[in-house]
Amino acid sequence: MTGVVSNTSPLTNLAAIGAMGLLERLFGRLHIAEAVRLELEGDGHDWPGRAEVAAAPWVECHRIENRSLVLALSQDLDAGESETIALGLEIGATLVLMDERDGRHRAQRMGLRTMGVVGVLLRAKERGLLLAVRPSLDALRSNAGFWLSDAVYRQALSIANETA
User: Fold this and answer.
1) Which of 76, 113, 115, 150 has the most Cβ atoms closer than 10 angstroms to its Cβ?
2) How far is CA 80 from CA 61, 84, 132, 143, in A?
3) SS3 44
């Protein structure tokens, strides 16, 4: 099995700006680890994306087989990141969606290709699913509370051929 695996933050951030549907349109099926589902549901907080993930037939939740890998990864990463990386390795994922820098670096060192929410938006524009990335980047900053440095913001606009 191959496919795209997502951690919690791309789901919650895209849902917060009304753009979670881009994931289905870009990737078809999306795989999440049980820990990601629990992060969305677990503490009683109504996280953006919680209801969307629960109702989405294109999101498939998995229990991780390699618990020793999850335990080793959890020394430095949270449960969602650890299980997302383990799931990516278990299913031979073509891509892992993750925003957290430490998790992305660990996934990359383990041979997984990663992309964050900004990359998802850039790919959506490239495929004609968004006319511009600036409104989505602005919404991430203002509506989702997503921290995005000015340098990354300008770089994303440059890649998208939008003026800074």
Assistant:
1) 115
2) 12, 6, 30, 23
3) coil
For 92-150, how does the pLDDT look when each residue is reduced to its tens digit (9 = 90+)? 999 999 999 999 999 999 999 999 999 999 999 999 999 999 999 999 998 877 888 89
Chain CA centroid to CA 15, Å: 11
Please give the biggest Cα pair distance in the chain: 47
Place of tokens 């495929």: 127
pTM of the model: 0.91
Nearest Cα to Cα of residue 148 among 1, 22, 17, 4: 17
Here the tokens at position 114 are 């990663």
Residues 6 or more apart in contact with residue 75 via CB below 8 angstroms: none
Tokens of 22: 């881009």
Task: Count the neighbouring beta carbons within 10 Å of the beta carbon of residue 26.
Answer: 18
Query: HSE on the CB side for 16, CA within 13 Å?
Result: 21
Architecture of the domain made up of 4-116: 3-Layer(aba) Sandwich (3.40)
Handedness of CA 69, 20, 28, 114 (dihedral sign): negative
Q: Are residues 51 and 26 in contact, defined by beta-carbon separation less than 8 angstroms?
A: no
